[in-house]
Predict the structure of Type IV pilus modification protein PilV.
Amino acid sequence: MSQSFLLQRQSGASILEAMVALVVLSLGAIGVAGVQLSTVKFNQVSQQRSVAVHHLVAMTDRMRSNMPSVRAGDYIFNVPYANIPSSIPAFAACGAPCTSQQVANRHLNEWLTQLAGALPSGRGAIVRPGGAGTPFLIAVMWEEKDLTAALRDARCDDFPIVAAPPTAQCIVAEFQP
């Protein structure tokens, strides 16, 4: 009779151990899922920043290819953030050869249109805060989910007319002609 009692007690302990193991395993699975979710989020942010840098470099290359318009200030584009989509310079086919200003309009049109399609609320701005002889500042801006003030690039505020919202991230580069 005492052996029967021990067997029942042993089987009860196995069920309890199995339940504890299941709880521990569940907590581990929840932890792994949280890490995976964070990884996906950081990969998305990293991908957006890579796209922004690509478009920033593309614009500096365009400007480098059309120095007469750079010197004339034809690449300056600084309008309020919310108005950028409706303010994209129009580009109409030009006769051969195109003027340097027409090429600048085409470059701005292509760049701003590509930004709008490549990034969430993608925008761009180009300013020359110090006037002639000083570097241009080129910004690529986009909406980034869960952006905290500590992660926002402070140079977004170098574009006072643009007035980007606090949820807008930006990458800024200097271009010295």
